[in-house]
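Quick log. Single chain, no ligands specified.
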Amino acid sequence: MLTIRVPHLRRGGRMRVRIALLLLLPGLAWAQVYKCRSVDGRLAYSDRACADGGAAETFQPPPLNVVEQDERQRREAAKYQDQGRRWAADEAREARRRQAQQRRDERAQARELDKARRRCHGLELQQRRLRQSAAAAPARKSLAERLAGVEEKLAAAACHRFQEGA
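-> predicted structure:
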């Protein structure tokens, strides 16, 4: 690699000189290129002028303009930054949409769980009442039998006066 020593420049300044030289070197590498069209119409590219009387067109590389190159690089960088911002905004928007959907799903699931919990509680109350009435049924039956026996005795006592032989 080409090394240029500039003692009075600090490291950052030397780096700038190297970068400037690297930007100029490609321009030195261009050679003159001839585009030759032969008599039969074929194209040939060469570093020498056309030998067999064909028409020659000299190809000149575009001039190396650092200002235009910097501006083009800035435009490309700005384009990529804009694209990156758009992608980030799209990702953020998608993340917000997914979070909102997840919250809606969680609320719907919570409503379903509440509904199931209330139904379960209602079934438990109904079961408790049925157990209580089932437990009370024999007591009611016994009470009804005793009442029937008392009614019979009262009826017999009340009707005793009216019976023959009394």
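The two ends are 148 Å apart (CA to CA).
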